[in-house]
Write a structure and sequence with these properties.
772 residues; alpha+beta; Immunoglobulin-like; Rossmann fold; 15-stranded mixed sheet; seven-stranded mixed sheet; 38% strand; globular; DUF4350 domain-containing protein; membrane; transmembrane helix; transmembrane
């Protein structure tokens, strides 16, 4: 009997794999932050890989669409022991439609050995876990570490009736998975109830990047000795004060506050906007890039806040829900506007007279010269093969002379913008390759560089095994981009971004009574051409500045003040390039990209061009290189005015929000003059320019005018906490009643009349003087 049992065990062991199939490696793909994401927003992709019973040494390959024109391929090396489980992560700029539609699109592949040497593994299974996606315009708030605070803030959904507001609570440990800013792209705002220094340096830098990209962080602790220390909004203090219930009721307009609120006796940092109750600082807000750090002087877990539903009304006073949607991104600008121009290579060029001379000589040689030569040699019967042979040799020679540049080596064209900032400078570039042979082309990247291949049509680079595509692979000390299966004489493009260090311009300018004076010194590692000050719609020419050189500036300003730049319409994306205009069109496209990069800085900028800057990915072989690089650096200037100052809406940052899809859809001309609008109710804010906010101005009058009957308007009175209806023309000397934290708020009602015409936005004008 024992022999039969042993035989049975042996047979089961031998034939079970044949009965049930070989073991499989399981790859679970999760999208977003704990399974949540937002439409048309960057998203993290996490691969959980569970190995089978064998040892695996190979590569995981991904090929995701990165927007409707781009593809991002990643190669992740894997060395797995039997039954080992690992997690890997990549990032997308949006979620491919096949995943959203729960289709069977294949984006993940497994290769034995390597993608270059191995074959696709047969024993693996991929499961895509479809995420919960919210609308692109939903305002997502994440509360980390305190359930009671998350519950108290739910009332914000009722306060912000014109927008979908989602408040979700998470454990602090949820932040352990955060590696890059894209991990947090789901959130518009985060409440952090734990000291920032308890997070790792990687997590802190990711949060900082998320803020610079538009996020708002609300925190009650000191941010000294963290990545946010250079941007802190409040001083640290252990001394405390109290704000009584009556003061809270008056500040919020809500009567159900019945406890005192303990606050630290702090002061706002210069450049931060403070919120006060009877001269006691409640909180301060510091702009960081396109986002903000909001530090409260009170504890977010204080019972007066976390256990009171009306605390949402207190927090609403400190928060900014006016977020512009449908704004351009550097990646969309690069793929939609820069690449189509960068990929235009010069065609073969022949002058007409040279062509005539060549053909004349050709006919002369094949005619009388050849005839008399053969006649003299009495070999005229050889003409039947000499003539076609001679024609073939001349044709090949002409071709080789005309196409020598394209045959000898490939050509690469590059357009790039380098934004120079106080803390870190970034490069944004597009590169196009004109091949001289078929096959694979490789580029070297720095470790922090991100690139995506250009498809030229929606999802045009999906079939990577049989078609053309690109993938990024980590090497020992750098990364490489490989463009696969490039045909002969074909143009392939990709875009990228990453950190760069080329130095900084030393800008010492003064804005005094309508003039800008001072010096600009080139402390960069490159020479600059066509250096200009870009303020509003005005470009002030400084000239070429070589390394180490300085140029003096003494120019009159159109708007009296140095103000944030505005993109002129004739510099945007609608010019069709010709051989004569291609250089100017390229500069115009780069100017549009630069405008996208600096619009949140709300500062004037210095710009200049270079054709010698070492930017972007480095080609692994030899190639003929042509480069156009625009350097842009925001700056601030000291302001000294004895004359009156007038500020209009063109010089302010306008934000709007509405409960309808659309809103400000298209701007027809420069400035804030003529728009298409959808019929809706809008909340509109006008923020004064940075050059005004950092100085002490006294405002003497406010004028406001409506055009036509499409828009009716109300203005917010900060003294009464009420909106007041406005006539078609309005002016007041009581400016302090309507301006708070350098901001004026309105409500617009846009009627159905907009369907028959475009809208001219209301005129707003402030007059005042600098306090002496």
């Amino acid at each position: 009997m024992k022999k039969y049992v042993m035989l049975l065990i042996f047979l089961v062991t031998m034939f079970a794999p044949l009965m049930y199939g070989s073991a499989e490696m399981n790859i679970d793909v999760d999208y977003g932050f704990e399974g949540k994401g937002k439409q048309d927003t960057p998203i993290a992709v996490t691969f959980t890989i569970q190995n089978d019973e064998r040892t695996f040494d190979g590569e995981l390959v991904t090929t995701y669409a990165n927007n409707y024109l781009l593809q991002r391929g990643e190669v992740i090396p894997l060395q797995l022991a039997p039954n080992e489980v690992v997690r890997k992560k990549v990032y997308l700029n949006y979620l491919p439609y096949e995943i959203i539609d729960n289709s069977t699109g294949k984006f993940v592949y497994l290769y034995d050995d390597s993608i270059e040497k191995g074959d696709e593994s047969k024993d693996y299974r991929v499961t895509h876990n479809k995420p919960e996606l919210t609308s692109y315009d939903a305002f997502m708030i994440g509360v980390f570490g305190d359930k009671q605070l998350a519950s108290a803030l739910q009332q914000l959904r009722a306060i912000q009736q014109s927008r979908v507001v989602d408040i979700s609570e998470y454990e602090i440990t949820s932040l352990e998975s955060v590696q890059q800013l894209e991990d947090l792209a789901l959130f518009n705002m985060i409440f952090l109830t734990q000291e920032l220094d308890t997070l790792t340096e990687v997590q802190q830098k990711a949060i900082l990047g998320w803020i610079q990209n538009g996020g708002q962080l609300v925190i009650d602790g000191d941010v000294s000795s963290t990545a946010l220390e250079p941007y802190k909004a409040l001083t640290a203090s252990s001394a405390t004060k109290t704000i009584n219930a009556e003061q809270l009721q008056q500040f919020t307009g809500q009567e159900r506050f019945n406890k005192v609120l303990t606050v630290h006796d702090v002061q706002p940092i210069q450049g931060a906007h403070s919120f006060k109750i009877d001269e006691t600082v409640l909180a301060a807000r510091k702009q960081i890039g396109s986002g903000a750090l909001i530090q409260t002087a009170f504890s977010l877990t204080d019972a007066t806040v976390s256990q009171n539903d009306n605390a949402a009304y207190l927090m609403a006073k400190l928060l900014d829900f006016d977020v512009n949607f449908n704004t351009s991104t550097p990646e969309s600008d690069l793929s939609s506007n820069v690449v189509p121009v960068n990929a235009l290579f010069a065609s073969f060029e022949f002058s007409l007279w040279k062509i005539v001379v060549v053909f004349g000589l050709y006919i002369f040689l094949l005619g009388p010269v050849l005839y008399f030569f053969l006649k003299r040699k009495d070999k005229r019967e050889y003409a039947w093969w000499i003539i076609p042979a001679f024609a073939l040799v001349v044709s090949v020679a002409l071709f080789l002379v005309g196409a020598k540049d394209r045959i000898v080596q490939p050509q690469i064209q590059q357009m790039a913008v380098v934004k120079i900032s106080d803390n870190a400078s970034e490069q944004y570039f597009a590169q196009s390759l004109l091949s001289n042979r078929g096959g694979d082309y490789q580029f070297s990247l720095t470790n922090d560089m991100k690139v995506a291949s250009y498809g030229g049509q929606s999802f045009g680079l999906r079939d990577f095994q049989n078609g053309r595509w690109g993938y990024v692979k980590q090497q020992q000390d750098h990364k490489t981009l490989t463009l696969k299966n490039v045909p002969y004489w074909d143009v392939e493009s990709f875009i990228g971004s990453g950190a760069i260090d080329i130095g900084k311009l030393d800008v010492q300018l003064v804005n005094e009574n309508g003039m800008v004076t001072g010096t600009v010194r080139n402390d960069l590692t490159i020479d600059l051409k066509e250096v200009q000050i870009w303020t509003g719609l005005q470009f002030i020419n400084i000239g070429d500045i070589k390394q180490g050189e300085s140029k003096h500036v003494n120019e009159k300003l159109v708007s009296s003040l140095l103000v944030p730049n505005t993109l002129p319409v004739d510099q945007t994306y609608y010019d069709r390039p010709t051989p004569e205009t291609i250089d100017e069109v390229r500069k115009g496209r780069l100017l549009g990209l630069a405008n996208t990069l600096v619009m949140d800085d709300q500062s004037p900028v210095i710009i200049g061009y270079s054709n010698t800057a070492d930017i972007g990915a480095q080609f692994a072989g030899k190639a003929k290189m042509q480069s156009t690089v625009l350097v842009v650096q925001p700056f601030t200037a000291s302001v000294n005015f004895s004359d009156d100052v007038t500020i209009n809406g063109d010089l302010m940052l306008m934000k709007y929000s509405t409960d309808l899809y659309g809103g400000v859809k298209d701007q027809l001309i420069s400035g804030q003059d003529s728009y298409y609008l959808d019929p809706a109710d809008y909340k509109v804010t006008y923020q004064l320019p940075q050059s005004i906010m950092v100085h002490n101005f006294s405002w003497e009058s406010l004028r406001y005018e409506l055009y036509g009957g499409a828009i009716s308007s109300q203005i917010y009175n900060v003294k009464t906490n009420q909106y007041e209806s406005l006539p078609s023309e309005y002016s007041t000397d009581n400016v302090d009643d309507y301006i708070e934290n350098d901001m004026i708020q309105f409500k617009w009602h846009v009627s159905d009349a907009v369907y028959s015409d475009n809208v001219k936005l209301p005129m707003i004008e402030l007059k005042g003087a600098m306090k002496q």
